[in-house]
histidine kinase
Amino acid sequence: MSTAPPNVPPDVPPTALPTAAPNVPKAPHSMRMRLLIGATIWLSGSLLVVFGVLALSVSQSLERTVQRQLGFEVDSLVAAVDIGDGGDIAVEYEPPNPLFSRPYSGWYWQIRHGDTVLRSRSLWDWDDLLDARPSHTPKGTLHIRRMQDPYGRELQIAERDVYLPGLKGALHVTVAADRSELIRERSTLLTVLGGALLLLFLVLLLTVHFLVSITLRPLYTLQNQLELMRETPEKRLGGAQPRELAPLSNAFNAVLDHDADLISKARTHVGNLAHGLKTPLSILATQAETLDPAQREIILREVSIMKRLVERHLARARSVTGSATIRGVRVDAGRASRRLATTMNALYREGPQITLDCGNDAVFIGDEDDLMEMLGNLLDNACKWAAGQVRLSARATRPDGLVLTVEDDGPGLAGDEAESARQRGARLDDTVAGHGLGLDIVQDLASLYGGTLTLDRSFLLGGLRAELRFPAMVPPPARPA
């Protein structure tokens, strides 16, 4: 197994340092969609009920109209009956409806008294079409029924038993009317009614859409202000908010002011702590030089451990407080890479050649200092161990996603050394300067943005390959106010 110095700095964390991206739940329907869907269901249900009620009322009204007309025809026939001296019956005049005279017109009448039967001309040769049928209604009551004529037309039948003075037995009077006209009239009325209600539905739906847009406009304005705050953290929610949103806006501004104050104090404390601890540790290291070798070695080793711990925790505190203030700024990863390459070339004048391969759409969503800190540690690590080449690439994976890769042509990481490197803060080679914190800080910063850091062998250059992968973090833009 290779015993070459590892292609990682003394501060290498585990060979693979994945940090699981947060599980982002599927966004539910917007309030706008919920209101519109609810209004659509409510309006359609209500108008369907209204249509059903009106359709029933129209049908019943038309039926009553036809029944009244048939009842009028029955009364007209009874009034036209003439009773002779021998008890014979006759019709003095034809009913005024001309359809009773047209053969098979659909309008028929018949009067039966015993064996005597009088019929309209429209019945022509249909002698038994309107024969009397048993009626279970009280005497004199108009009885309504339906039947079909030989042509398949549906007929509305109105019949009544009439008792006239000087006439033995009941006079059974029957009038039939074709229902086709009734059906056509009802269909026309229901079509007009349905079209009117559909038009009303569309008008009401557009009205609801307009009212929802007007009502939710302050929320869109608030969302736009929040998006601006992601890019400019010092901004606050402002403007004239509706009475329902004003308490939320004021409380949110108060929380932001409180957090900004806490972060500012934390930064101050971090700086003070750094100066307060580094000076005594430096004095201890200087004083240890005057001691005998055994004691000097023990004290210097413990001072070195303390310095590494201080640097580690201070760096982590700086990274947390620094990135907590800016989470929505769009940073050009290509420009940051070029700046770092220039710095590394100046720092390692006799060092490796740094090659950049950055796409124009490579954008980091967050604090530029955090990006520079992560890339700086990875490039510094690569430059320390590279034989002659270092390659830095930046690619957008999807809208607002980013992959940063740093590769070199150094000796790489052997299997047994990889196990040692998994120890956080471990140093595999004390001949190289460092505090054992570089990739540890990179991992911490990446996790703040939901990113992952992985270390493996470069297929392109043969050395170490460090990859930073960041998911999309910016929500969809707000609707225009």
Summary: The longest helix spans residues 180-231.
